[in-house]
Amino acid sequence: MLRFESLISKLENGPISKDEYHACLNRLKLHFDIDADSKLLKNYGLPVVERSDDVCLATYDKSYKDEVFCIVDIETNGSSPIKNQIIEIGAVKVKNGEIIDRFESYVYADFIPDSIKKLTNIELEDLQDAPSLKEVLTKFKTFLGDAVFVAHNVNFDFNFISKSLESIGESELLNRKLCTVELAKRTIKAPRHGLGFLKEYLEIDEGEHHRAYADALTASKVLNECIKNVPDEIVSTEDLIKFSKRSISRKSTAKKQQAKSS
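Given the sequence above, the corresponding structure tokens read:
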């Protein structure tokens, strides 16, 4: 991710000229041709679009109502992607509030600490016939494509998966990402915004907490609830991503919700 930061930072701020785009690619030593480079970046999950006069992120112009969001949750046998690994992954693709595709798999592992067993109810026996990390993540990366990566505390899931992909010889993730914790803080008036709490608070019934697929489904319902309270001036997917990171007071959020419901 670090070597792409400069290019991504420029694209986050809007369209850039083709000359500037080429210059960034040259610095990255990605200078085969603009079409091949754009396809390569899309393979990394970065939705780059070449227009007649410039280059931009597809999320810059696209309405968030037409966006494909991939809501992801993982269970792991520890907190470090260097020492530990994913043991379960679940994801749903959502467009305009409707689920359009699903992904769910255990991942083979030869160790689960007791604390994780208690938290997830996943036993080592559940993983013995599961596919390998390489097989699952290769399929997941294809499933994800260049959709917006969404998770509750997105940096943990995104970075863990990205580092795990690199560990098996696959390319890192460069997808645009959206955090439902941050979005919920700005759109849902609740005393806490952890997934377990919001599940109860919003009366979401999508199975056992701390299981990957059930938590991905729950997070998708949280996303839908958040979007109901997004201000009218938020139009594009990139607007939504920036809004989720914007500093906003609880008082202001409550007023917006009251205005929408009146």
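The domain at 64-246 is CATH 3.30.420.10 (Nucleotidyltransferase; domain 5). Try to locate this feature in the token string yourself.
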